[in-house]
Write a structure and sequence with these properties.
- The protein contains three helices and seven strands, in the order αββββαβαββ.
- By secondary structure, the chain is an alpha/beta fold.
- The protein has a domain at 43-136: Nucleotidyltransferase, domain 5 (2-Layer Sandwich).
- The longest helix has 17 residues, at 17-33.
- 14% of the residues are buried.
Length: 140
């Protein structure tokens, strides 16, 4: 009696399901880890000025105005572009400390009204130590 071995007729196959699972996990990992740096999204082009930088003793409150006129206070984005929303976020972030220095960083392409609105909101809340960030002049 002759017994046949049918295994030699089967074609070998590669199971791709575990490979797809691993690749999907890697893609999710890279997508999540690339969103940690929020400041990389904000491309500011500071206006230039001559002068020496001053070392700060106290951590300044950072107010950013991007080229579109949107406001960012420290790590918080102001949803509405009006002065009331900006004042509300400033009060939440700064608390009652009005002697804290403020660093206003506005893009060189920012509409002038957006910078004036930020300065007006800071003045209405009682901030007096306001610094405007600039980039050093390019050497010719």
């Amino acid at each position: 009696m002759r017994i046949r071995d049918d295994r030699s007729q089967e074609e070998p196959e590669i199971n791709l399901v575990p490979l797809i699972d691993v690749i999907l996990v890697l893609i999710i990992f890279f997508v999540i880890t690339t969103t940690f740096d929020a400041r990389s999204m904000l491309q500011l082009q500071l206006p230039s000025a001559a002068g020496e930088p001053v070392a700060a003793q106290v951590k300044a409150l950072s107010v950013l105005v991007n080229a579109d006129g949107r406001y960012f206070v420290d790590e918080h984005e102001v949803i509405r572009p009006d002065i009331d929303a900006l004042k509300q976020i400033l009060q939440q972030v700064a608390g009652s400390d009005r002697s804290r220095p403020v660093l206003l960083r506005a893009d060189a392409r920012t509409p002038h009204q957006a910078v004036v609105t930020a300065l007006d909101a800071l003045g209405q809340l009682g901030f007096r130590r306001i610094n405007i960030a600039t980039a050093p002049e390019a050497q010719k």
